Amino acid sequence: MDFAMWTLYNRPWNETLERAQWAEAVGYRSFWYADHLMPPTSDGATDPGDVHECWTMLAAIGAMVPRLRLVSMVSPVSIHHPVLLAKRAVTTDHISGGRAVLGLGAGWQANEHSGYGFELLEPGPRVKRFAEAIEIIHRLLHGERVTFKGDYFTLADAPLGPGPVNATLPIVVGTGSPFMLRLTARWADEWNTWGTPDEVARRTTRFLVACEKEGRDPGTLRRSAQANIYYVHTAQARAKAEKHATPDRTLIGGAAELVEQIGRYSELGVDEFAIGDNTFGETHEERIDQYAAFHADVLSQLR
Fold it and tell me: Domain containing 69: what range?
C-alpha cells in the first residue's frame, strides 16, 4: 500500500514545499491538496482564514518535486467549469511530466458558495450537474472532440489540446452515496473514501455493488482512503484525542495500534492511504517532529 501526504491549504508556501520534498524523500507516493476557497464553518458563515489555490499549488509542487503524484482532493464542479478543470489538470500534468490526478466532486461547502456567489444546488440537481461534468471531462481527457448539450453544460465540437502526457489522466472521485458510486464506476479511474477500516469495509461493499451494476471490473479502479490520525503516547493524550474524534473517521493509538489499524486498509483493497497534518500539531516545528516520529514508528513497519 502506498502513502500520500495531505497538508492543509493554509500552510505557508515554504512549509508546503518542504513537506512535499520530505514526503518524496522518505517514499510517499502522492501529494494531495484540498480544493477550497475558504475554511469551512459549522453555521455557513464566511471565514477570512488563509486558503491557497489548489491547482496553482499542485503545479508549483510538480515543478519543484520530481516524483510525487499530484492530486486535487477534490475539485468541485459547482465552482469550476469542467473544461477549465480539464485544462488546469492537463497543464499541471505537462509541468510535472505526467503526474497529475484530477480529484472531482459535486461541491458541498456552503460558506464558499454563498460568500463568493457560486450556486450550491439541492442534492439531486447537484449530482446531475456532477454527472454531466464528469462525462465531459472523461471524454476530453480521452481525446474526444466533445459535443454535449445538457441541463448545465453545453459544448460544441470541443477539443482539449494538448492532451495528457500519458495518453489519459486519472480521475478520482471521493464518495459513498449509491448514485455517485455508480458514476465513479462508469467514468472514474480511482475511488476515494473516508473512514476507519470498519467504515471503509461497509463503503467498499456499496462500491462493489455499484461496479457490478455498471459492468465495471472493480480491479480496474485504484482505491484510496484517509482518516483523522491521532498518534498518542499517554493516557492523557488519548483522552484529549477522543474528545475531538469524529465517529467512523478517526484512528487513535500508539505505534502498535496504528500499525494494526492502518494495515487493515491494505487487506480491504486500499491502494493508497493519506496521512493528513490536521492532527499533527499547531506549529510547523510540531508537525515536522510528529511526521518524522509517525514515519519512523508506524509507516516504516507497513512497508
Answer: 2-301
Cβ neighbors of 23 (< 8 A, separation 6 or more) are 5, 31, 68
Q: Is the pLDDT of residue 303 over 90?
A: no
| pTM of the complete model | 0.95
Q: Give CA–CA dist 7/106, Å, rounded.
A: 22
DSSP state letters, 100-112: EEEEEE----HHH
Number of domains into which the chain is organized: 1
Average pLDDT of the residues of the chain = 97
Q: Which three cell numbers stand for residue 55?
A: 491547482
The predicted model gives 38-66 an average pLDDT of: 97
- What CATH code is carried by the domain that includes residue 262? 3.20.20.30
Q: How far apart are CA 182 and CA 134, in angstroms?
A: 12
| DSSP for the chain, written as a single string | -EEEEE--TTS-HHHHHHHHHHHHHHT--EEEE---SS---TT----------HHHHHHHHHHHSSS-EEEES-EETTTS-HHHHHHHHHHHHHHHTS-EEEEEE----HHHHHHHT-----HHHHHHHHHHHHHHHHHHHTT--EEEE-SS-EEEEE--SS--TTSS--EEEE--SHHHHHHHHHH-SEEEEES-HHHHHHHHHHHHHHHHHHT--GGGSEEEEE-EEEE--SHHHHHHHHHHPPTTSEEEE-HHHHHHHHHHHHHTT-SEEEEESTTS-SSHHHHHHHHHHHHHHTGGG--
225: cell is 482512503
The whole-number average pLDDT for the span 31-57 is 97
Return the closest-CA partner of residue 87 out of 53, 120, 136.
136
pLDDT at 167: 87
